[in-house]
Design brief:
Elements lengths: L4 H43 L5 H13 L6 H13 L3 H30 L3 H15 L1 H18 L1
Helix pairs in contact: 1-2, 1-4, 1-6, 3-4, 4-5, 5-6
């Protein structure tokens, strides 16, 4: 197949714009999820009377942006600490917050990517899982534009 210079440029430009749109959408989604996590954790930590609640909430929301770490890296040791010190009510609160934020993240991320990239949510979820297992951490950041490009090519 031979492309003229203009056709090649247009195809590369279209691919670049698709990738740019998908990456921008992914970053916006992560920012919104990070802000939701920050607000939820700040509220819970303030209610539980934890010192430096905003700082801990901010650090945990940053961990939430990292695909394989997430908020579990910070909250699970906190749950173990409270259980060890026989503060079971606090342990239960943190556990409920961890489960809630994990489920909320899954739902929000899938829905936002679905609406922004205009692909079915099942395809977004399937692409996330496949890219995570096949490509590892690079695949998690790569899935939005590859999924978007594949789906738009099929239309």
């Amino acid at each position: 197949v031979y492309f003229t210079e203009t056709e090649t440029y247009n195809k590369i430009r279209t691919l670049f714009l698709l990738c740019q749109n998908a990456i921008t959408t992914y970053l916006k989604t992560q920012t919104i999820i990070m802000l939701i996590t920050l607000m939820m954790l700040s509220l819970v930590f303030v209610v539980m009377d934890i010192k430096n609640a905003l700082l801990y909430s901010f650090l945990l929301s940053l961990l939430d942006c990292l695909p394989f770490l997430g908020i579990g890296v910070g909250l699970i040791p906190l749950i173990v600490y409270y259980a060890y010190n026989h503060l079971f009510v606090r342990c239960l609160y943190i556990f409920i917050v961890l489960i809630f934020l994990t489920l909320l993240r899954s739902v929000i991320e899938t829905q936002m990517m679905k609406h922004a990239i205009k692909i079915p949510s099942f395809l977004v979820l399937l692409s996330m899982v496949i890219h995570m297992y096949v490509y590892g951490i690079c695949g998690v950041y790569n899935y939005p534009h590859s999924c978007s490009g594949y789906y738009k090519k099929r239309e």
